[in-house]
Amino acid sequence: MSDIKKEGYGWDDAMAVSLHDKLKTDLKQAMLTKNSDAKNAIRQTMSEYPKLTVPLTLESGKKTSRPKSPEEITNDDILQVIRGLLKSEKTVLELKKEASSPFLEILTTYLPKMASRDEITEWIQMNIDFSVFKSPMQAMKPIMQHFGKKADGNLVKEILQGMAG
Quick one: what percent of the chain has pLDDT higher than 70? Predict the structure, then answer.
């Protein structure tokens, strides 16, 4: 994993470049350095772009869609694609009883840093009044709204169950 970060792969929203441009740059680098794992992971991600569509209504009233142009593809769109690829890769790894793969490690570098257990616990203690909920699990919604995709729902559930006990 550390090799991948050292080679400059990955992205975060603090960078001055869009995720789309960073992927293109990283693909060129992977091809030049003959890093087939990175090249394949990035190509797989880019091959999903045609699935990103814009809904349209034709003059006849029929609803359809068209693929987004590169300028219309947002960082969130690409992050959604990467999350989908990671989810299916994790399923495959579970079936093969393997812990990780180069594909998984490379794509993970493009996701925003996840909130840690300590960050989530601290935010809950500062912002959630459990007296307004019948059970601590009802606090799940406001917590997930705050953290969005940066918090693992299972981790939040585990923390809340620990607080209830």
Answer: 95
Q: Is the separation of the CB atoms in 93 and 104 below 8 Å?
A: yes
- In this structure, which long-range contacts are made by residues 48-51, counting pairs with CB atoms below 8 Å and at least 24 apart in sequence? 48/81, 48/84, 48/85, 49/73, 49/81, 51/81
Structure tokens at 155: 């981790």
Kind and range of the H or E element at 56?
A: strand 53-57
Amino acid letter for position 135:
S
The token duo for 117 is 């257990």
Could you give the CA distance from residue 83 to residue 153 in angstroms, rounded to a whole number? Answer: 14
CA nearest neighbour of 4 among 19, 17, 29: 29
Domain assignments of the chain as residue spans, ordered by start: 2-108, 117-164
Task: Specify the pLDDT at position 7.
Answer: 65
Give SS3 for 57. Answer: strand
Any idea what DSSP says for residue 66? E
For 37, the token pair is 């794992």
